[in-house]
């Protein structure tokens, strides 16, 4: 009814609704992009977009057509080969800042990504200098392909419980690796099933029957010439997963696999020819790979969420439903009979705009996280580990909170696209199924909340014991917890209507919420232990509270970083839009976690009305800029891989075209008819038919 | 470490942890089952389990092995053939009460399910007597296979906006069907792509250029002998979806397709040979198929959620993580070195037990819904439509609330299984991807919340105008809204510690929350319209509030029905467990929606602590019964389709076995090696190799 101009197929005319949306926005789109990513990342993105955009390997529409996991794996190997070519051509191998964006732009994870983000960094971190000189160039040049092999079938988060053994054989100067039980089968490492030639394998180091705990060993698993698995090593593919099926997550069992003594990675410990064991440096750095990986996850989360947000926003501007004339309609010129743009509906705005705002906020958080991590590493190299606790708390709480929020946000975007969001051609399902495991791997919310809560409660405990603050904490992301006074601050935060237009005061409310939750948990913890509970038991009783205070602390961090980003901008149209987005995100969280805010007396029960009025006003304010903000993420169509999120908005043509890729559309009468359907309709045919019945 | 007894593969010995769990439960498992489903449904289930359990078509493990959508579709056709055989053998075709359970037990939806749950009921409802005599036996005997063809590419929820036309040609006494635009392409009907021979097609009825709006026509789409699509009809498969890929959702375009005048279904309207149009009976019943389908969805939701809950609970009893000695441990005999059962962790309990309780509550709600619907239909047949408004409100609010909660609950169960939950072999991903579209189709939460809010606000408006209550409302599920006094009840609900052990008082708090949200929305609505907003605009401004009051109203209904179920039981061990589950669900909702409760003054900010203390106590009380409650859903292993949720708890053996089904494990060196990986490792080989490079 609304779309006379959109009926030609394969045209390149932009849908008039989107054209209109882009005309009316208040800012220059590419200025937003540049401000968001910053000059360095913007330059990297520009370079990568050019390198990737004409390469058919990076066109993910094949996912709509692919018929089976074998085909998908072969396709992933092709993508891997092309990724390696790009890295070799652009000489990106030691540019850490480029690997993250490359991974997001490639759109699909496969073995070579784990080689880059886990295997290679682990070698760099865990090898001693001599080992590094041998292994790192091999890995950097892809003459070996590796993965990180830690999790076992029955042992995940509890790393200390791993069972795989590495016994020192003094006679041959070798380690002998074994899988002592079914439960000890290595399970999950990406690429281990079929693709990798090597791995860093975590195993219990034992010398003369003494167990020194879990240590990293470099282990070759496949022949470099034939790619066959090596003797004593059984490798297999784990089978199909909810998503992420381009990655061959694998399993392994070892039977008396012998590797040289020097295959133990010896940066943080050393074993000599006689089997003498000694530790070197700060042993906490041995788990550095996990902190690094969490940092990488946090960096990628915002751009991942943005993909789904862009799809849902553009589609909602083109999709029309119910003939309702709206006051703030995007398209005033439509007559009374035209259906309204779905983006004009308040529920759609409340669903999508906070996700759009969060995509911006998480992207900024990720960029800060990267810089903060790099500073920490620089300091650590100089022997300064004072930020170790903070980096642990920050990566844990942000990883736990943001990954869950992103998974949830992607699924909300999918539902916001109605039925069409369920088609792979919408581009969102693949985002969801590929991203959702990130919320589980490298520490799920419970495990990471424990880590976060431990650090935060220590601050309270120190304060309660009237000690002076840890100097490393002053000026850090943790300082506000120390500064909070639980005794003077018992009464409700003074709230008047002015607060809803004052970011600093809203941020204070978020801080109060986080602080009270932390102090309350510390109090309950003390009361549990003084009632005779062991520390372990008290920790378990309070786990629920820990997960909540972790989210509250993460919100403070994210909103603070976003606000700092805004304050760095000169007054401008971009700055105004960022302020709107900040309010949108903060107020949406005030609403969503309102229970938290009243429990902690940051708000009283009456303040919810004010939140909703302010929130609805900000949604209407964002509305005319929504499509332009989506555009500003600067994601090319090819990588969005979406019939609904196309830049030109020609969604219905694209959906119809997408069906041409479906293998079942190759014939009118489907393969199931002759084998089965005809016998439902004509049971008598079964009696006289030859046995065509095929059991799969 | 804990599993010496579990290392034999393919054994049938139950894991000692599960054996222990079953020993210590407080009730007889099958008594629970019988009380839950009721005598009639229990009998049907028994019959169906026997018929299905030895039939390999119903073994869903093939999903772990299947390589591509074509294979999956052929497999679905086989399943369909077997379902039809069961229906024919057990003569179930006119036993509506058996079709729902059959659908749940079959585990996979495919075209024949839509034939049973949408096509056939529509024929029964929409045909006049003569038409019914012709069409119903054909459909009941599967001599035709049909679907319900309504949604178009650009038109979903707004049925009145459908564009497909059916023009009356008086000369030939025929309707001429056309697809006037790309946007009018029929899109989504299950089975329409490849499987169906017929459909009920919704199209604009036009006579002599006058448009009478959307009406149902029966339309043959494929040849009954060859299965080829008929002239003028273009049929196609929509392509791959997030899940539900055994169903061939399809699209259709019509060009001058001619069908006899009597193919208009004429129960509620009539068109004669001269083209005179008249309506018959209550036209609201024309949309009866949608109400019926929502009822069916509500009935199936509890059993669907139960599948994932059972898997997560059993796995959490077998999975061990971190060596923590717990006070309330399920396995006292373990030494200090053994890792704890994950089910002992408070976060795991808080995640899973409310889902277990909700599975029970939704199952009971579904059984009530079915009975209530059947009563309504009986009355309607006698011309009594007084419950029409209530049935509309009830089906709308329960469908919206429960489907979202179930989709969310399934995903929570999956995450609660850690990494392994991500494997298809865990059985949960297929539950999630297959169930999640149910939250969108047949009305999403926004559309249905509008329907619910309209009915609820009418009650308030009537009351505010000092009218007497509608007699049909008295004694109904809506009466409590009428009985609420917004003026006398301004102050906080009196809460003391006694409330947490008194279901009636907790239910009062839920009622207060719902009522205040409804009255507040009605007030805001009146204020918007008196400020000059149109009804449509005011509706949109309040949509956010509508979605929330709909959930609140649904919670009252669900908790009330569950409580009535409890009160029907004699004092017994089962009754005690049900009471625990009731508290668990109610308190978990009090916590989750605490913001709602304080905003509406049902609780004050101080009451959250009491909720958490009571909730944690009830979780510990449920803990020893958790596995037995899961067992009581009486879902056979074959239909759970889960390596993690097996009755015998031998999860690690089952996981390892599941990898044998993966096609990529047929060879050691994978197909991607020769084509791509070797050139990453040895780029020089590319130069001298023959062109093996294969682009998909």
TrEMBL record, chains A, B:
Which residues of the sequence carry a binding annotation for FAD? Answer: 151, 190
Q: Which organism is it from?
A: Besnoitia besnoiti (Apicomplexan protozoan)
Q: Which InterPro entries match?
A: ACOX_C_alpha1, Acyl-CoA_ox_N, Acyl-CoA_Oxase/DH_mid-dom, Acyl-CoA_Oxase/DH_mid-dom_sf, Acyl-CoA_oxidase, Acyl-CoA_oxidase_C, AcylCo_DH-like_C, AcylCoA_DH/ox_N_sf
Keyword list, A-Z: FAD, Fatty acid metabolism, Flavoprotein, Lipid metabolism, Oxidoreductase, Peroxisome
Q: Where, if anywhere, are coiled coils annotated?
A: none
GO MF terms here are:
acyl-CoA oxidase activity; FAD binding; fatty acid binding
Q: Which Gene3D superfamilies match?
A: Acyl-CoA dehydrogenase/oxidase, N-terminal domain, Butyryl-CoA Dehydrogenase, subunit A, domain 2, Butyryl-CoA Dehydrogenase, subunit A, domain 3
Q: Give every Acyl-CoA oxidase C-terminal domain span.
A: 502-681
List the GO cellular component terms.
Answer: peroxisome
What positions does the domain Acyl-coenzyme A oxidase N-terminal occupy? Answer: 31-145
Name of the protein: Acyl-coenzyme A oxidase
Q: Where is the Acyl-CoA oxidase C-alpha1 domain?
A: 287-457
List localization entries.
Answer: Peroxisome
């Amino acid at each position: 009814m609304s779309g006379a101009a959109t009926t030609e197929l394969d045209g390149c005319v932009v849908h008039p609704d989107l054209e209109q949306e882009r005309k009316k926005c208040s800012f220059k789109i590419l200025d937003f992009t540049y401000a968001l990513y910053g000059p360095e990342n913007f330059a990297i993105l520009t370079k990568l977009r050019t390198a990737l955009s004409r390469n058919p390997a990076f066109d993910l529409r094949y996912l709509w057509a692919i018929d089976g996991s074998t085909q998908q794996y072969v396709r992933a190997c092709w993508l891997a080969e092309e990724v390696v070519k790009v890295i070799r051509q652009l000489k990106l191998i030691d540019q850490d800042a480029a690997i993250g964006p490359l991974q997001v732009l490639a759109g699909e994870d496969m073995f070579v990504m784990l080689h880059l983000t886990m295997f290679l960094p682990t070698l760099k971190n865990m090898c001693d200098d001599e080992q590094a000189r041998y292994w790192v160039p091999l890995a950097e040049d892809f003459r070996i392909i590796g993965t990180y092999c830690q999790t076992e079938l029955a042992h995940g988060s509890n790393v200390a419980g791993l069972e795989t053994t590495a016994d020192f054989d003094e006679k041959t100067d070798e380690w002998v690796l074994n899988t002592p039980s079914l439960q000890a089968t290595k399970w999950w490492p990406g690429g281990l099933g079929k693709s990798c030639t090597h791995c860093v394998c975590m195993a219990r180091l034992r010398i003369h029957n003494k167990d020194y705990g879990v240590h990293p060993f470099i282990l070759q698993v496949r022949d470099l010439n034939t790619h066959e698995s090596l003797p004593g090593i059984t490798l297999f593919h784990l089978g199909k997963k909810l998503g992420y099926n381009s990655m061959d997550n694998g399993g392994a069992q070892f039977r008396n696999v012998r590797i040289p003594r020097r295959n133990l990675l010896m940066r943080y410990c050393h074993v000599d020819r006689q089997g003498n064991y000694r530790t070197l440096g700060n042993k906490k750095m041995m788990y550095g790979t996990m902190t690094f990986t969490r940092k990488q996850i946090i960096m990628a989360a915002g751009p991942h969420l943005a993909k789904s947000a862009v799809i849902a926003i553009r589609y909602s501007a083109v999709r029309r439903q119910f003939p309702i004339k709206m006051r703030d309609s995007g398209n005033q010129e439509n007559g009374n009979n035209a259906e309204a743009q779905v983006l004009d509906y308040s529920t759609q705005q409340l669903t999508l705009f906070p996700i759009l705002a969060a995509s911006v906020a998480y992207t900024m958080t990720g960029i800060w996280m990267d810089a903060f991590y790099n500073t920490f590493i620089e300091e650590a190299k100089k022997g300064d580990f004072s930020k170790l606790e903070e980096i642990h708390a920050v990566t844990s709480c942000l990883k736990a909170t943001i990954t869950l929020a992103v998974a949830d946000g992607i699924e909300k975007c999918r539902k916001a696209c109605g039925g069409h969001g369920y088609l792979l051609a919408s581009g969102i399902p693949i985002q969801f199924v590929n991203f959702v495991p990130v919320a589980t791997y490298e520490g799920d919310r419970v495990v990471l909340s424990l880590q976060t809560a431990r650090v935060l409660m220590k601050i309270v405990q120190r304060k309660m014991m009237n000690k002076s603050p840890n100097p490393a904490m002053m000026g850090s992301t943790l300082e506000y917890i120390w500064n909070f006074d639980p005794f003077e601050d018992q009464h409700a935060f003074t709230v008047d209507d002015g607060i809803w237009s004052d970011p600093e005061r809203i941020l204070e409310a978020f801080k109060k919420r986080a602080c009270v939750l932390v102090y309350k948990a510390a109090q309950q913890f003390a009361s549990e232990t003084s009632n005779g509970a062991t520390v372990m038991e008290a920790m378990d009783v309070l786990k629920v509270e820990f997960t909540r205070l972790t989210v509250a602390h993460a919100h403070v961090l994210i909103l603070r970083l976003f606000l700092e980003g805004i304050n760095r901008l000169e007054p401008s149209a971009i700055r105004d839009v960022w302020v709107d987005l900040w309010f949108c995100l903060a107020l949406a969280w005030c609403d969503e976690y309102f229970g938290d805010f009243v429990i902690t007396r940051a708000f009283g029960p009456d303040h919810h009305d004010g939140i909703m009025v302010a929130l609805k006003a900000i949604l209407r304010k964002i509305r005319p800029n929504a499509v332009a903000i989506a555009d500003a993420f600067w994601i090319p169509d090819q990588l969005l891989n979406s019939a609904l999120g196309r830049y030109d908005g020609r969604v219905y043509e694209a959906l119809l075209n997408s069906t041409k890729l479906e293998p079942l559309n190759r014939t009118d009468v489907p393969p199931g008819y002759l084998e089965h359907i005809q016998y439902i309709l004509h049971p008598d045919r079964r009696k006289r038919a030859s046995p065509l019945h095929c059991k799969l």
